[in-house]
Design brief:
Strand content: 15-25%
Distance between the termini: 31 Å
Strand order of the largest sheet: 1-6-5-2-4-3
CATH superfamily: Leucine Aminopeptidase, subunit E, domain 1
Shape: globular
Structural class: alpha/beta
CATH architecture: 3-Layer(aba) Sandwich
Radius of gyration: 14 Å
Number of domains: 1
Helix content: 25-40%
CATH topology: Leucine Aminopeptidase, subunit E, domain 1
Number of helices: 5
Largest sheet: 6 strands, mixed
Number of strands: 6
Length: about 160
């Protein structure tokens, strides 16, 4: 049986159709938040376009996913997930829902591959190891439809 690929490196250097952006509830305009972490790196390399599109999509419920263009990045799309509660924390259930929602969006858009960062391991407060396990467990049933990788950030 195939397994979820775990890679060390930069999410933005993956050869996949779509990447996942661990966003928030999307109720505060992106330009007021000064995105950091994964979102900040995406904003820096993709430009403003994906975040403008994201702003027009309205609030995102915890565990939900939406897709935008990839801006200046060479992806078919960026899938944005809300991995946080109202209190800017997360839990394993939300991470699992983010994975399942992202996979649904990817399949619905005809993507063949997707890369996840460690959703909830930064601001959300979960350990990197536990997040990796939850993402892998949640994604494994879908490997027959989609190539799935988890990218653990490591500077070159």
């Amino acid at each position: 049986m195939a397994s979820v690929l775990v890679k060390y490196g930069d999410l933005l250097d993956q050869e996949v159709d779509a990447i996942v952006n661990p966003w928030n509830r999307n109720i505060i305009p992106w330009f007021l938040l000064l995105p950091h972490g994964v979102s900040g790196a995406i904003r820096k390399r993709a430009g403003r376009q994906p975040f403008r599109e994201l702003g027009r999509l309205g609030p995102i419920q915890s565990g939900s996913a939406v897709v935008t263009s990839a801006g200046k990045l060479d992806y078919k799309g960026i899938i944005h997930v809300c991995g946080l509660t109202w209190y800017w924390t997360t839990n394993e259930k939300i991470v699992r829902l983010c994975v399942e929602s992202s996979i649904k969006v990817a399949v619905d858009n005809g993507y063949k591959s997707i890369a996840f960062p460690l959703i909830g391991a930064g601001v959300g407060g979960l350990s990197s190891e536990r997040v990796r396990e939850v993402i892998s467990d949640a994604a494994t049933p879908y490997l027959d439809r989609l190539a799935i990788r988890i990218v653990i950030f490591k500077r070159n």
